[in-house]
Amino acid sequence: MILDAKPDGASQGKLLQGKLLRVLDGEAVWPPPLWMMRQAGRYLPEYRALRAKAPDFLRFCYTPDMAVEATLQPIRRFGFDAAIIFSDILVVPDALGRTVHFVTGEGPRLEPIESIGAIDNLPLTPDWSCLTPTVEALGQARRMLDAETALLGFCGAPWTVATYMIAGRGTPDQAPARLFAYREPEAFARLIDRIVAVSADYLVAQFQAGADAVQIFDSWAGVLPPVDFERWCLEPIARLIGLVRAKLPDARIIGFPRGARLAGLNAAARRWTPAALSLDTTADLAAVRAALGASPALQGNLDPLALLAGGAAQEEATARLLDAGRTSRFIFNLGHGILPPTPIGHVERLVAQVRSA
Ligand code: CP3
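Above: the input record for the complex with coproporphyrinogen III. Below: its predicted structure, written as tokens.
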């Protein structure tokens, strides 16, 4: 829910801690807390109306009042247990001078990195004017949300951000970055190091502004063979988390190594000691829980296509997930972002089913 005004939401005591933070902090809560990846987005008419007022997607992200409004829209409509700040993972490359723009209906475009020189010429300090609007929006949003609604910050994982910086766009398998990493591993490692450093400072700033937890999106972890998964997903995220915890030892971190197999999830749980791991659509929640033991919390993983389909398919998939999550620390979410054509009635049905579990 949303408050009219509140002086200092970030300092609310534990007594008022909402369901999502209780699960992240070690409790099993039933019915489980619920939020949805990409919950602010094009499936909402109020989002489309707001979006039409912005000259382009990045201006939207970089205007705190607009970003806050987009963040709050799904909370007003559905009363989710968490709001996720409205922004994008590609503000980090933008801050590193690899100018980003979004082509409507196609996705992000950056100038591709085709040489080692482009990596070694990255600025030593990021352009914070690309990062502070989101930090400022987090502070505003935290003051407007009630204490029971958690506020999430986020960033892209170093590997996923690097794949967009190398290719200059999304591709079906991020082959350009994989090829670059095979051909120029040392230079690629320097690129990863730069992203780790900027992302750590960015996440610390997000926590200091009022984020209750952050999610690290490694959307492209699943294309990597095991050795490269270790080198480009597990290790850089471990380093990123270490840098954040060096400043904020209790920082709550949700990892989302999308496409990771059971062995990868197991390694992520041990190496990152995250508050939660977010599972993609293909993961078997019960099997992951059995393999990992009681910690971390697990988040996920309804197929966004089941939510788009609605009806019996959605209800049965939701019921199966609720069954599998019932006995342990569980956060209901999708396995990936909600799809733009999803009918709002399907989301309402989902919320009712989870709330009455
Ligand atoms: O509600 C939320 O989840 C918070 C906002 C959020 C956005 N992007 C807004 C957005 C978050 C957490 C992201 C993360 C993100 N961005 C990821 C990781 C998660 C994932 O989906 O795998 C990635 C890979 C990106 C990069 C990105 N941004 C792509 C590939 C695209 C184009 C595809 C698309 O859906 O249009 C975007 C654009 C984008 N980011 C939109 C939104 C709401 C749509 C643009 C618009 O409304 O005009």
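Notes for the reader.
The first helix runs from residue 19 to 24.
The first strand starts at residue 82 and ends at 84.
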